[in-house]
Specification:
The structure holds two protein chains of two kinds. Chain A is of the alpha+beta class. Chain A is built from two helices and five strands, in the order H-E-E-E-E-E-H. A five-stranded antiparallel sheet of chain A has the order 4-3-2-1-5. By secondary structure, chain B is α+β, with helices and mostly antiparallel strands. Chain B has one domain (7-120): SH3 type barrels, CATH 2.30.30.100. Chain B has one helix and six strands. Chain B has a six-stranded mixed sheet with strand order 5-1-2-3-4-6. In chain B, strand 3 (41-52) and strand 4 (55-66) form a beta hairpin. The chains are: A alpha+beta, B alpha+beta.
């Protein structure tokens, strides 16, 4: 899973959190817990959250992420499907 | 120097001023002094910032130890960008009063919503707060 994200480091993503906050930024790093570090962030929704104005980089705890919106052309869906299928087969055994 | 290259580490963020968003909606601002693998944090010279509309107020809190499961996000405060331009700093009493009024208004609208939903024979969906791995 973190390989998928590993290959997306440097791309622009939108992270939607469970508290309904959406943050747009460049993916800096990901870890085994799917904690995410973003740089050059901006709050996508109308800034109902003014406290983020002075924050440029942030660390997001993996457990609070609902979705990570990825650019469609950056993900090789075929490769991803094959990898997921392989992982599922390994888990079944 | 990254001790674990490729990982989202907080090591480089130590001793820098950070803004922490908690799951209960609170905002803490303080100097990050310590971290661990659960994202437990130790914040120094912490201030709780309350935002209501365009106004905000700071309550000094001292040293905070935050359990990782309550952390939503941690952001490095850019000291150059600390804009008090759009936002208006007010006294603690004023911001607490504003917050109290905002809470009351929210409770009132929730009560009306609940009533409307009940009248139609439905029920409100429960919030999911216990969903940690």
């Amino acid at each position: 899973m973190s390989d998928t994200f590993g290959s997306l480091v440097g791309k622009d993503v939108v992270v939607e959190l469970k508290n309904d906050l959406s943050i747009c930024g460049t993916l800096h790093s990901v870890d085994q817990y799917l904690n995410i570090k973003l740089t050059d962030i901006s709050v996508t929704d109308p800034e109902k959250y003014p406290h983020m104005l002075s924050v440029k980089n942030c660390f997001i705890r993996g457990s609070v992420v609902r979705y990570v919106q990825l650019p469609a052309d950056e993900v090789d869906t075929q490769l991803l499907q094959d990898a997921a299928r392989k992982e599922a087969m390994q888990q079944k055994q | 120097m990254n001790y674990m290259p490729g990982t989202a580490s907080l090591i480089e963020d130590i001793d820098k001023k950070h803004l922490v968003l908690l799951r209960d909606g609170r905002t803490l601002i303080g100097i990050l002094r310590s971290i661990d693998q659960f994202a437990n944090l130790v914040l120094h010279q912490t201030v709780e910032r309350i935002h209501v509309g365009k106004k905000f107020g700071d309550i000094p809190r001292g040293i905070f130890v935050v359990r990782g499961e309550n952390v939503v996000l941690l952001g490095e405060v850019d000291l150059d960008k600390e804009c008090d331009q759009i936002l208006q700093r007010v006294s603690i009493e004023e911001i607490l009063e504003e917050q109290r009024m905002e809470q009351q208004a929210k409770l009132e609208s929730e009560r009306l919503k609940l009533q409307a939903v009940k009248e139609r024979g439905l029920s409100m969906p429960k919030a999911d707060t216990l969903d940690d791995f």
